[in-house]
Fold each of these.
Amino acid sequence: MKALIVVLAAILGFVLGAVFLSLFTLGFYAIFFPDALNDGQLAMVFLITVPMGGVLGTLAGIAIALRQMGQSRTAGEVCRLGGGTTALITALYTALVALAGESPLRDFLSALLLPWVGCPFVWALLLAFIGQGMLNRSDAPVD
């Protein structure tokens, strides 16, 4: 039964994460760059927001389900390892794209301000820090 709850939380987290990140990005473009909504290339952004939001939502859903079942240490590990790995992957692909430009550091930092890159990066870092905090507060033995 517990495994089913974790799987359902993961599926719900994937859907909610993908929808949240995609709608956040769409809202950002609607407010700050409304002309971009008429550009067909904006749809390419969702090739990043859907899987990244899904992965981050899945991690959050699993961690919430595990914590509700009293497995705070395991939930902390999921957040810390999953969030840290996702933040690292996000930083690496952003850096690889930025290296192709004339000013790699400026391009890297400006890419992190875009919602389809910056929001998953910050979300992943938050998961990692929350997971570490859960591990620091956990008095329970290793599961």
Note: Helices lie at 2-32, 46-68, 72-99, 104-111, 115-137.
Amino acid sequence: MAVVRQILYADRDGEAGVLMKELLVPHELLLAESVGQARILARQHRFDIYIVAPVDPHALLGTIDVLIKLAQFESIRGGAAAQRAILEELGRQPSSADEIAADAQKPAEESRNRRLLFKPYRAFKDAGGNRANFERQWPKLIASSRRDTAELRDST
């Protein structure tokens, strides 16, 4: 995102002010009707650029050129920051299939446990139990059930 510059433009000509606003569209342009008013505004606010009419066309082109170059520089800087973020993320990501599989196992196990938790909790609650008691008993219930399931598999 480009930085919006604050520009103070002093000119008695209202049409020139409208034209300058259109010309410097992405930036915040504050119009002053006189040099005196511009001085007061300059003391009250911090502006990046001051333009006082009558405007030298070459100076105006130079100012616009500087704004364009600043925008290009900010885009390049933003692109570099994005590139660094991509490289950091790629550096954090696992590099081998084994690491990817290991990283996927824990969330998969947590997902299975959450799904496995739902039906027993509903049955426990329907039978008159409360959540605190279920959560206290759950580790023993699941360990016992997994042990029983493993024994059944081994016996077949």
Note: The chain is about 70% helix and 10% strand.
Amino acid sequence: MPYTNAVFDPAAPVGSSQLSAGDNAIRAAKLDIKERMETLVEDFDANPLALIAGLVGTIGAVAGKKMLIASDAFVPEEDQDDWTYFNDYVQTDDSGTRVLKAPVILPPGAIITEIEYLWTRDGALTGQYGVLCATDFDVATAFNELFFVEEAGAGVKLTSTGATSILIEDNKLYKILVRPLVAGALIGRVQLFGVRITYDTPSAEVTL
């Protein structure tokens, strides 16, 4: 239903208006507010107010939000001496068995739609391997691999998982692991610049 006053004018009444018309202006403003709020709440006269049923599931839905994880956030899974931190990236030592890890902190209900890794390598390594892992918070279990990506190309690469649909659950812990593509005594280094996660928030209840 259209509003009684189609335009909500926060500047009305102007200072030059007649004082005797002030009560009409107050009534008009209250009517404007009530009519507009009734598109959001069940009963504007109720105490307390309640959102229209189902509305909270549609407000605040945002697709394509981004979360960046800088290289500084990654820590070695083994000895700290196995890694070197530079201004722009973190680098492994000359061994193919080293693993970097960083937590993924997203609200329950968010849906990861893509993970991208900015990285490179040198030496004899055949490539890099990145994976999203999760484990149940309530029980002491090992992290399980959910979605991984491999990069075999030389030079600095932005490697994408492509389209994914990974629901963040409220009883799980999540982290990203990065390691050489082939474990073993290969001579070479992985250099990680960072990770970018794209995710959707289905409603206003799902946000950081």
Note: The chain has two domains: 1-53, 62-201.
Amino acid sequence: MRICIEGFFDGFGSNLPDQFACLYMNRDDPFSVAVFSVNARVVFEAKVMSVFSPRRFEDYAWVDSFCKYLDATFSSDTFFERIGWESALTVAPWLERGRLTSL
């Protein structure tokens, strides 16, 4: 089996979700954060006959879990879902109001 992992950085900027830099990264100026888009491609190559062999098929079962690991580790969508960003953004105004009234 041959595995090839390629990273692509074209120098293009990307966007963070609304208020992410301020609330999650504790930055007063959201433009002080440089955000870029990075893409990756993973290519697995195997001999055709080895895929159809029952014993060899089990040897390749880790490929799916590896791809899921890469997605969970590097995908911004997966990251925002894991930290519950949509929920946090919904609650943030209520927490801020409560903090201001308790001062």
Note: The longest strand covers residues 2-13.
